[in-house]
Amino acid sequence: LARKCASAGGGRVLTRKGKGRRRLAGERVGASSPHAEEPSTSSKRAVFLASLEKEKSASDASSWGYLGGMELEEKVSGAVSVRYVPDESNSWIEVSAEGDPTRLRVKNDGHFELWGRCGRNREALCCSGNVTLPPGALENQVQFTFELSGAGGVSIRWADWVTLEVHARGEGMDSSCPWSGGLANGFVLEKRVSGAGTDMAEIRIDVDSAGRWFGGAHFMNQLWPLNKAVWETGPFYPFDHGPTGLNTLVAPQFVTSSGLLVMIDPDTPYLHVGMNAPEEYAPGAKVPHRKWGTGVQNATNPILPEEAGQLGGVTKFDGVLRLQSRKSFECNSVSHTWSDWTKDRRADEEAEGVGGAADVGEHKISVALCAFTNVLESSMASLRTLPTPKVTPNLRVLQDPIWTTWAKYKQWVTQAKVLRYAKEILDSGLDYSVMEIDDRWQIRYGDLDFDPSKFPDPKGMVDELHEMGFKVTLWVMPFIEKRSAAYKEGLEKGYFVKRVTSSSHPYEEKPGFFKWWNLPSVVALDVTNPDAVGWYVARLRRLQDLYGIDGFKFDGGEPCFLPKNPITHRPLSYPSQYTHLWVKEVAGKFQGGVCEVRTGHKTQDVGIMTRIGDRFSTWDFKNGLQSIIPTVLTSGLLGYPFALPDIIGGNAYFGRNPDTELFVRWTQVNALMPAMQFSIAPWHIGQEAQDLVSQAMKLRKRLVGDIIDLAEGTSNLLKPIVRPMWWLDPEDEVTYDIADQYALGDDIIVAPVVVKGQRARDVYLTSGVWEDLDDPGRHIQGGQWILNLEAPLAKLPCFRRVAE
Fold it and tell me: N or C terminus of the chain: which is more exposed, having fewer CB within 10 Å?
């Protein structure tokens, strides 16, 4: 970067030159363009180009191209082209689609390269990777062949060991993969592996070849970009504190600064994912075995993933994104609640088309790889594959903060405390929308009725809250304790998840009690049973009819909160299916209102707030303040624009309470996000905290119209409300590593302070002309850093684009 200092906005300006780009054709950095001039042919090397026509007879005979000769014939199938170069040491097959600049080259050793067009309309390498052949395939030099298949596809084989089906994506092309519908500029790779001793199908992508990585999941340690993380390969489904750091929201789709889009079939059973995982350890170093239970059992486990360079004992990292469909969740390096689970074969029969093995002994993984000119285009392409919600959450929740009793009162909440809290909020002068009544309002967990000893007049309480202007929601979860009246009723009707009595009695079933973050142990609602779902939803409706409840905070729903080897009414095809049904079939019945969930799987079309997991009251990326921005940005990239940051100031767990500085800075981070949520009252921290929180809320009021407009636009396309800095200038490589700024829409840049004790910070403005909201009228040229901008505790640095 070229640097130049000047005076602007109380700080120094650092200019930059150069744009982020992919490797171009002709650059000799370990890979050559598919259209670079080939070496001269010899008796052992020939080039074959077969251009296939559309809609030809499917009865044309199959033909194969073989390594040792020229017997290459055409098989007519969709509009694709195949170029085959046989060579004794390095044969390859190149696939392209008609009118599509993207090309995939697959080599006989399993390596592949994806090439596309960059912003300057020049050919560039978008990524490289490997389809991971079994060791014997290379040692035995198995036959490397291809067949032109139907619907724009090519079938590449390594003898009977591995088959790679390659389908072009684009208008009018193959639609056999609904999860990738609407994609263009790339291919769907469907890899099948069979044979004795085969335990997975894997595709690897070289991390550095694709630039900076974004998306995938919420993590306990939310590093941005993902290149910074040492993400140990492990199970990929929602947790509340998972064995590789996974948190409550996952979606197997990634975008990179090179314009690469990677999407994995979200219904893949036994899906494992990792990135830059440890590969070799120093002599004598202890190789960790991660052991995870449920709820509070994980409280003392490490916060993962570790950051690269901070993990001792590791001498080498693998440098790849690993995508694996395994035969089971059993693993030598990690134990978790689903480690012993075996998918019921009935699940495949009932859910036709679910990813995974088509035949016994065969493993399959399907991955879409698309090359776009930049990361913004790949993000938009990813979001276009997702269904949009028909309704948005109640706009009042986006306009004014939610107030919850959880961090303030925990399980000791009562009617008197709720009303006293509401009056304090009114007296403070701060805005409000919802009063959420949290833990232990029920008689017993699962009863879904007020405890009369704590709430003697719930209808009167709700009426009084309504008169004050609050909507009222209740905390609910799919758990039922044994002593509850609901347990007795649901048990008789078979409404709960069960488990096997013991390994010696595999056909005897009993209620599937398990530990969670509270006491006592509970069973889980069987969301695969429509009657059980109807029973549960009817009881929620009853609360609304009897007491005037406006909505619910739907907690839990992650598959880690199920008994080991769960037995459900309809067999689960993969763990995340439970999450999908909880959000879609239960919470989804109340969408468009003031409800919230904290997890999701293929639920982007549910119009409901999606809260991020419980935060600690700390400053760092390890589930503290610094994790908020990258986590909310990730929500948007995964198709969840109505992101609800967790409680301002954190949950005060482990006796850690936020001080004035942390609480104020946390409020400023959240001030221009889609929604805000308080629990710890700022006036309980001190007068200074209350005054500065009020000041941040005034800024939100100035800009809340922008938030509402962006929210209403999600009905057409799931564009994030809160956006990464690279969204504003996707080829500006400076933006890729910025984890402490965000954009509200395309015209507002927010740069809060997230470091303890800091009273000035550097701010990056993308190209264009900007003005500081605290100093309107003085224009600042973008494409540069403002160095050492003053940011006292009262200031939230915020800039608006000026129309040129």
Answer: C
**Percent of the chain scoring above 70 in pLDDT:** 85
Token digits of residue 498:
């069960």
Do 630 and 413 touch, CB atoms closer than 8 A? no
Looking at residue 129, what is its pLDDT?
98
* Rounded Cα distance, 252 and 218, in Å: 11
How many CB atoms are closer than 10 A to CB 169?
A: 25
Cβ(470)–Cβ(435) under 8 Å?
Answer: yes
Residue 655 makes CB contacts below 8 A (sequence gap 6+) with none
CA angle 200/201/206 to nearest 5° reads 120
- Contact partners, residue 419, CB within 8 Å, separation at least 6: 461, 464, 465
Q: Name the most confidently modeled range: 128-132, 282-286, 502-506.
A: 128-132
Tell me if 741 sits within 8 A of 764, measured CB to CB: yes
Instruction: Judge whether residue 387 has pLDDT over 80.
Output: yes
DSSP notation for 653-702 = GGG----HHHHHHHHHHHTTSS--EE-S-HHHH-HHHHHHHHHHHHHHHH
Question: Span 426-446, mean pLDDT?
Answer: 96
Residue reference for tokens 């202007």: 469
On the question of pLDDT at 29 being above 50, the answer is no
445-462 pLDDT tens trace: 999 999 999 999 999 999
Q: Give the amino acid at 493.
A: K
Flag whether pLDDT at 364 surpasses 70.
Answer: yes
Q: What is the pLDDT averaged over residues 42-62? A: 32
Q: How does 519-558 read in b/e, with b if 16+ C-beta sit within 10 Å? A: eeebbbbbbbbeebbebbbebbeebeeebbbbbbbbbbbb
For the chain, how big is the Rg over CA atoms in Å?
28
User: So what's the pLDDT on residue 504?
Assistant: 60
Q: Where are the alpha helices (DSSP H) in 306-358?
A: 346-350
Are the C-beta atoms of residues 492 and 535 closer than 8 Å to each other?
Answer: no
Distant-in-sequence, close-in-space partners of 387: CB < 8 Å, separation ≥ 6 = 604, 605
**String of b and e for 691-700 (b: at least 16 CB within 10 Å)?**
ebbebbbebb
**CA-closest candidate to residue 633, choices 744, 536, 546:** 744
| Pair of tokens at residue 712 | 């209403």
What's the start-to-end Cα distance of the chain, in Å? Answer: 26
Neighbours of 161 (CB within 10 A): 18
Summarize pLDDT for 572-626 with one digit per residue, the tens. Answer: 999 999 999 999 999 999 999 999 999 999 999 999 999 999 999 999 999 999 9
The stretch 78-102 carries a mean pLDDT of 81
Reading the block at residue 303, the tokens are 């916060």
Give the tokens for residue 246: 């996974």
pLDDT of 332-341, one tens digit each? 888 998 999 9
Better pLDDT: 539 or 353:
539
- What region, left, alpha or beta, does residue 93 occupy, with left being phi > 0 and alpha being psi -120 to 50 degrees? beta
pLDDT at residue 12 greater than cutoff 70: no
| Cα separation, 203 vs 132, whole angstroms | 6
Using alpha carbons only, give the angle 10, 766, 120 rounded to the nearest 5 degrees.
Answer: 150
* pLDDT, tens digit, 9 for 90 and up, residues 559-568: 999 998 899 9
d(CA 744, CA 674): 9
Cα 643 from Cα 744, distance rounded (Å):
13
Return the bridge partners of 204, or none: 130, 322
3-state SS string for 455-497: CCCHHHHHHHHHHHCCEEEEEECCEEECCCHHHHHHHHHCCEC
Residue corresponding to tokens 């850690």 = 656
